[in-house]
Every structure is written in C-alpha cells, then in structure tokens.
Write a structure and sequence with these properties.
Length: 145
C-alpha cells in the first residue's frame, strides 16, 4: 500500500462535483440477515437506522455508527433467494478508520472474525483486513500519531 500526497490544487466544480455529492452508504447483499446483524451490530457496534421492504421478498436495513456523521452500511437480503451469493472478483473492500488498530483487532479476534491481513505498517498508516460473515473484506485503518 502506498500513499500519494493530495495536490494543493482545489478540485474544480465540474460534473456532479458542482452539486456537492458525498458518499452516504455502501450496500451489501447478505445471505442471512440475523448472522450479518450479529456481526455489524453486535461486533462492530453499528446501530440500525431503518428497515425497508423493497418488494415482497427483497429487504434492506440501514446501519450507521452511533457517533458518525458520515456514511454507513446497507444490508440487503432476499427471502426467496435460493442460490448462494457470489462476491465476484471486482469487489475489494470498504475501509473503517479506527483510533486503535491493536484494540480493534483484539476485539475482532475475540469474536473469531477471520483475519485477511494482520496489522501492517505502511508509511504514516497502519492497517489490517478482516472478513464479515458473508466474506466481504473490511479494512481497519489507523493514522500513526
């Protein structure tokens, strides 16, 4: 992992940028909503914001960290789905900024969370990667102080 310094040139307000967009949520299809909620709420500490029924069989729950003013996660599930989920090879991960990587990894290890990458030094950063119950990779990132 390498870091590239930000440029001093301000971004031009062209395209959608002129309308001041911001990333709100990332959405994942999960096989078992109870298992997924056990991880995202019980282990990561997110809170349920709302549930929506998109059709008779397709549902979603919106999650966010309690003190976050930023984005969150949408977990979607289809009660009629019989085929297993396929993550594909285009998905990489989503990143959570944490204040203490070692304490975060200790908590996740206590919950038998699969580790993809042990804590690693990368310039001004430390990071590690774990998997959620459906196999999605979550990167935990800490800025060195």
């Amino acid at each position: 992992m390498s870091t590239t310094p930000a440029t001093d040139t301000p971004a031009k307000s062209t395209g959608l940028n002129a309308l001041k967009p911001r990333i709100l949520h990332v959405a994942y299809h999960v096989k078992d909503i109870d298992r997924a909620l056990s991880f995202y709420v019980g282990v990561l500490g997110m809170q349920e914001q709302m549930r929506l029924d998109l059709s008779k069989t397709l549902h979603e729950v919106v999650l966010q960290f309690p003190d976050s003013k930023g984005g969150g996660v949408i977990l979607m599930w289809d009660t009629a789905r019989e085929k297993p989920l396929a993550l594909g090879d285009g998905y990489s991960r989503f990143v959570l900024m944490v204040s203490d990587l070692d304490a975060s990894m200790k908590l996740l290890n206590e919950h038998q969370t699969p580790v993809v990458t042990q804590p690693t030094e990368a310039g001004p950063l430390r990071y590690a990667m774990v998997k959620d119950p459906d196999g999605y990779v979550i990167e935990l990132l800490q800025l060195k102080r």
